[in-house]
Design goal:
The complex is a heterodimer. By secondary structure, chain A is mainly alpha-helical. Helix content of chain A is 77%, strand content 1%. The radius of gyration of chain A is 23 Å and the shape is elongated. The model of chain B has no long low-confidence stretch (mean pLDDT 85). The chains are: A mainly alpha, B alpha+beta.
């Protein structure tokens, strides 16, 4: 009987607890700590290692039941949004979607693109109202992206249409109601999903090339790496929703692809001088966020911040 | 529903007493899950046996309700550990719980006497 066998048993308990429910990593860590402490105590009293683990697991309770009880209190993505904030969030969000679609409809080329965005948006609103755990962080990322992108356009182009400005305000409104009002409202997984949806939006803005003559989007041809980045962002968001840990690899790929692609575009002269800061902020920013998502997926928010803080502090 | 073995407290009572017990223990000072459970066991002389994993949802609910707060600190083993401490709202909630349990206890005591 080795410590490895004990580890295996503890991991088995942990994964069973997480299997059918949405338990956050920090909460799983806490239960795992308990299991380890109890096992150590029982062994200290002379119980054989394997019996000690089994007894510790028995005292903690059936893992699926413990997991269910946890999920009843809070999910992996954080607490549920109170109704008083859910309703205005859904209203602001839907209004912004509606105006966006009505406004883009006459412009043929944008119609199908915004059709896709609006469909996604409506699915999220529906998910939020039916209290699906991932809806809140996904919508927050989406609303923040739309709001910040409009703010960006507002700075870059002086003659932004009033209707666009109104939508921008609506997006900010939605984001304000969806955002965590205290630090525990969004768990690490929730923060990761918010950032990944945001990065996905920003990647789309800068890497979805439209060639007017051909009336086609030709990202695959002009920037295959960009297409990879968009796909990897989407894959990572999907993995976060479904709690697939390997999604961290997709986030990593997305981050690297976004940053490298910007470097490539800059070196071949695609980035005109007046757009350097803007594209740096948007595209490289999205890349950095994706890397942050990968780190959070592996270590949680606080662990990541501490690690990066140490790296910056050099200690 | 599973009945508790003789001499043990039933599941419903354990669930009901969880909140005041946790709050009362935390009033004495900050603590973490594993140590809280041990304290409950000592306080009850072993008759209040929790399914230990169920303590955490209780802690997280109290945390979400703003009665307690958690923070990370290095435990005596050197590992980072999640500790909990009582907040002012938790103190008030504990006082209220205490009033109610005292009332129940008083009513039961009178009932036993006349039974």
């Amino acid at each position: 009987m080795s410590d490895r066998d004990i580890d295996r048993e503890i991991q088995r308990y942990r994964s069973e607890m997480a299997r059918s429910t949405n338990v956050g990593r920090a909460d799983l860590d806490e239960v795992e700590d308990h299991l380890r402490d109890l096992t150590a105590e029982l062994r200290g009293r002379g119980m054989p290692a394997m019996d000690a683990v089994a007894e510790a697991a028995r005292r903690l309770g059936e893992p699926t039941e413990v997991g269910r009880e946890h999920a009843r209190v809070r999910t992996a993505f954080g607490g549920a949004l109170p109704t008083l904030r859910m309703v205005p969030a859904a209203l602001f969000f839907s209004a912004a979607l509606f105006i966006k679609f009505a406004h883009d409809l006459p412009v043929n080329v944008l119609a199908w693109k915004s059709g896709i965005e609006v469909s996604f948006g409506l699915v999220m609103v529906f998910a939020l109202l039916s209290k699906t755990p991932w809806a809140r962080p996904a919508m927050l990322g989406f609303a923040l992206f739309q709001a910040i992108d409009i703010a960006r356009l507002d700075i870059a182009t002086p003659d932004l249409l009033p209707v666009t400005k109104v939508t921008g305000v609506l997006w900010f409104g939605a984001a304000a109601f969806l955002a965590p009002w205290n630090r525990r409202e969004l768990a690490a997984e929730g923060v990761a999903l918010t950032l990944q949806v945001y990065a996905f939006g920003m990647a789309l803005v800068h890497l979805w090339f439209f060639i007017p003559e051909s009336e086609q989007f030709t990202t695959a041809y002009y920037a295959p790496l960009g297409l990879l980045a968009i796909g990897a962002c989407a894959a990572s968001a999907f993995a976060l929703v479904h709690r697939i840990r390997a999604g961290a690899i997709a986030a990593l790929v997305a981050g690297v692809a976004l940053i490298v692609e910007w470097g490539r575009q800059y070196s071949v002269g695609w980035v005109s001088d007046s757009y350097v800061t803007e594209t740096l902020l948007v595209q490289v920013g999205a890349g950095v966020l994706s890397l942050l998502v990968a780190a959070i997926s592996l270590r949680g928010v606080r662990g990541t911040m501490r690690g990066w803080g140490r790296a910056v502090g050099g200690s | 529903m599973r009945h508790a073995p003789r001499g043990r407290i039933t599941k419903d009572l354990v669930a009901a007493s969880a909140t005041p017990l946790v709050l009362a223990i935390l009033q004495k000072g900050e603590s973490y899950g594993y140590s809280l459970i041990q304290e409950v066991r000592e306080l009850s002389g072993g008759v209040l046996e929790w399914s230990e994993g169920m303590l955490y949802p209780v802690l997280h609910r109290l945390e979400d309700e703003g009665l307690i707060e958690s923070f990370e600190a290095r435990g005596e083993t050197g590992r980072m550990r999640k500790y909990y401490r009582l907040l002012p709202d938790g103190k008030r909630a504990l006082a209220e719980e205490r009033k109610q349990w005292d009332a129940v206890h008083a009513a039961l005591t009178r009932a036993w006497r006349t039974a």
